[in-house]
Amino acid sequence: MDNPWCLLPEARPFVLQADAAVVSAFNQKYAGTPYELHTELPPEPFSGRLDAPVVLLNLNPGYSEDDAAIMLGNAKFQQAMKNTRGFSVQDYPFYHLNPCFKQGNKGYDYWVDKFRKLFEIDFDLKKCANSFLLLQAYPYKSKEFKKMPLLPSFDFTRRILLAAMNRRALVVQLRSKKIWEEAIPGLATYPRRIECRNPRRPTLSPGNLGSEGWRILLSALDAG
Fold first, then answer.
1. What are the φ and ψ backbone dihedral angles of 169, each rounded to 5 degrees?
2. What was the pLDDT predicted at 23?
3. Mean pLDDT by 10-residue block, N- to C-terminus, for the chain (224 residues)?
4. pLDDT, position 73
5. The pLDDT of residue 176
6. CA distance linking residue 170 with residue 150, whole number of Å
C-alpha cells in the first residue's frame, strides 16, 4: 500500500496535499472555535505496529495547548512520530507509551489511564506499545470534535483496517461506532470485534469490555 503520510510536510501547516482543500474549508468556517483543526501540529492518523494483534478504533486525537512543547520542541518525539507514520521498526511503535516521553506529554497520561488494568496484570509499557495499533477516523487534532466528511487520507486508514480484518486481528471499538461501520464494509458483522460499553471513557477494562470481551482481549494479546 502506498503510504501518503510519508509525504506529510515537515513544516507547518502539517496537512497532506490530498486533505488540504477540505481542511482549509473546515477551518475557515470554524476558526477560533474548539472545533478548529490544529494544523500547526503534526496529525496523528495512527500509532502502533502495523501487524499488531489488536486494532483500536478511535475518533480523533485531542488537542491541548501543551502539545506544541513536545510535538514541536522534542526532536526525539518528532522522529518517533515520523517513524510511526512510516511504520519503521522502533522499540515503542505506540509512541505515547514510551516512558522517555512521559514528561510534558498529555498523550502519555491519557493512554496509560486507558491501559491501566493491563498494567495491573503485568503487561508493561513496551508490551502494550507493541501489541496495539490505534487508528483515528480523523487524524488532525482538535479540542472538540465536529462532524465532517471523512478526509481523502482516510482511504489509507481504511485499507489498513481491511488488511487487519483479513489477517483476523482483534478489533476493539473505542469510539464512533457508526462512523466506522459506515466507512468500512463488513465491519458491522466482523466476528472478531468487541466494543466499549462507555465510549465516552474508553478504558480497556473488564468493566468496560465485559467479562467475555476482556477474556477475548487477553487471549489476543497472549497469542500476539
1. -65, 150
2. 98
3. 94 97 98 98 98 98 96 97 96 97 95 97 96 98 97 98 98 97 97 96 97 98 90
4. 96
5. 96
6. 23
Question: In angstroms, rounded to a whole number, what is the distance separating the alpha carbons of residues 157 and 127?
Answer: 23
Alpha-carbon distance of 115 to 125, in angstroms, equals 9
Residue 133, C-alpha cell as written in the block: 495499533
Assigned C-alpha cell, 205: 477494562
Q: DSSP 3-state assignment of 197?
A: coil
- DSSP string of 42-98? ---SEEE-TT-SEEEEES--B--TTHHHHHTT-HHHHHHHHHHHTT---S-SSGGG-
Q: How remote is the C-alpha of 224 from its chain's centroid? A: 19
CA–CA separation, 36 vs 99, rounded Å? 30
pLDDT at 129: 98
> What sign does the dihedral 110-134-214-194 (CA atoms) show?
positive
- β-pair partners for 134: 47, 56
pLDDT of residue 27: 98
Site of grid cell 482549509? 24
Report residue 198: phi and psi, to 5°: -120, 90
